[in-house]
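Q: Predict the assembly, please.
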Amino acid sequence: MIELRIECFHRVLPAEARTTQWPYFARGTAMTIEEFDDRLANLSRHYEIIDEVQVAKLLDGEASPIRACWVTFDDGYADVLDHAADVVAKYGVRPSIFMTTRVLDGDWWPPVDRWYSALCQTTQQMVRLSHNGISERWDLGTAEGRARAVVCELKSVYLESNAVQQAAIFKMLCDSLEVKEVVHDMPPFLTKGDLVELSSRGWYAGPHGHRHRLLPRLTPEQLEAEVMCSVDTLEGLPLQNRSSWFAYSDGRHDQSVRHQVSRLLSSRGYRGALTIGGRMATGKDSLWSTPRFIA
Ligand SMILES: [Zn+2]
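A: Predicted assembly structure:
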């Protein structure tokens, strides 16, 4: 039986970013360079770390089953090149990175990063918010309050909403935090040149949607635009290594999403799609619903 552990990383930052980029640490989507190094050291003690070409051989039965681990990154933060790339090179690891392709233009940020940017900018400690019957009260001076600010019903509603509702909730958040609505102090993302450089260092680049929209919330037409715009943007870049996988935004998918994504992408040579399942991939799941662990 195949026993494949697939890790999903997001950001790797210097230790001082624990203060300046605290929402990512509170949410579990950032780790320090030292923690990342320790994590890879630990994984390499317990697993053979393989790349996606070796993963394909394993799934196709062309390689004998081993305890293996595949390292992946989502979204495309610039710190992946700045900090993670040297660490993975030290361990001889070739990760796959799944890009929210709209960020490659450099003047747009995903909804979750807007939320975190507002939290990073506020000088308020006690925060009260209310929207459509959902009330929140955060004491940002405590770890519990900060954890609540990054995982709560209101943030879920915000991420699930359409663009108009999302803008209204974001304005209410900014008003409550007393920060300017202007997007500022956003985390840098990879440029097209950065992504080409990562691929020249052996990284595989694959699509993660164009604007990080949650696919189960979209009409079939919107889903096709979201997925194919991401695929086409990457195909327009001179990448040396391309991933043959797709990663669902926030791992979110359902049966009809799986069906449509597999139909759209298998004809383009893709072999599957990654979710966040919090369990090992065994080869028994549909390849269009392959589970990963959030690292
Ligand atoms: Zn993502």
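The CA atoms of residues 91 and 254 lie 36 Å apart. Residues 3-106+188-294 form a domain with the TIM Barrel fold (CATH 3.20.20.370).
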